[in-house]
Design a protein that fits this description.
Layout lengths: L7 H7 L6 H18 L6 H10 L3 H9 L3 H35 L2 H4 L5 H14 L3 H23 L1 H8 L6 H10 L6 H31 L16 H10 L4
Length: about 250
């Protein structure tokens, strides 16, 4: 199987014998991005401009906080907050004006009335809070890996064998792979790919569910002395299968 810089990470992930190779890549790059954003990026003007405009989601703020570089996080968060306050000021003024206008109306005029103006302001504020430069860059990286996965299936028979013997994907990445397949495959090739990944996915969901079921049954006193088999980590694997690398 030919290897180059785009395919090596995907091939390595498939050698790791995991429940979802794409989750392995996601976790790896998520951890790398923490170091990137808290490292030299703190002092890079272009990166700071991006952070100021988009900020971070709750998950990635927490990951960076847990990384322990409080000064680096403080420097980026300070300028991000300044920019947010600047952008928010106009929405805040409009909200105050709407509130003042509502206060002047009679009770009869307010009853049963939906105030679209304040909802619009609220939507603007929610849109500010919904952005995350970390998620954006991570999503772009994962899209490239999904593209590479389908490319490898199309070009490399060895990879088709590896895919057939794999443990499938989490549900999110399974959907992402199905969605990406028509970009490179069509006709019988597309049908064969969909049939393969769907068969692998269903077989492995059922395998993990059986392990999870046995985990629950082991708490029945009648099964106390029976072997655990592969069920001891079934809870973690089930959660990760259903929702990605969550635990």
């Amino acid at each position: 199987m030919k290897q180059h810089i785009d395919t090596i990470p995907v091939l390595d992930a498939y050698r790791s014998d995991c429940e979802c190779p794409l989750c392995v890549l996601h976790k790896k790059h998520e951890e790398e991005f923490v170091d990137v954003f808290l490292g030299a990026s703190v002092m890079e003007p272009d990166r700071r401009v991006e952070v100021n405009e988009k900020g971070f989601c709750r998950r990635h703020f927490k990951m960076m906080f847990d990384a322990g570089n409080r000064l680096g996080l403080a420097l980026m968060t300070d300028t991000y907050m300044k920019r947010t306050i600047e952008k928010l000021s106009q929405s805040a003024k409009r909200a105050a004006q709407i509130g003042e206008e509502e206060g002047k109306k009679s009770l009869i005029a307010r009853v049963g009335r939906k105030n679209g103006d304040i909802v619009t302001v609220a939507d603007e504020v929610a849109a500010m809070a919904d952005k995350c430069i970390f998620c954006e860059k991570l999503d772009n990286t994962m899209e490239r890996y999904v593209f590479t996965l389908v490319y490898l299936y199309k070009k490399e028979s060895d990879f088709r064998d590896a895919l057939a013997k794999s443990k499938g994907f989490c549900l999110d990445h399974y959907a992402q792979v199905l969605k990406a397949a028509p970009e490179q495959l069509s006709g019988k090739d597309l049908q064969a790919f969909i049939d393969l990944v769907t068969r692998v996915e269903m077989e492995n969901l059922e395998r993990v569910e059986k392990d999870l079921e046995w985990f629950t049954l082991k708490f029945d006193y009648r099964n106390k002395d029976k072997p655990w088999g592969n069920s001891q980590d079934a809870v973690e694997r089930s959660v990760n299968k259903m929702r990605g690398g969550a635990v």
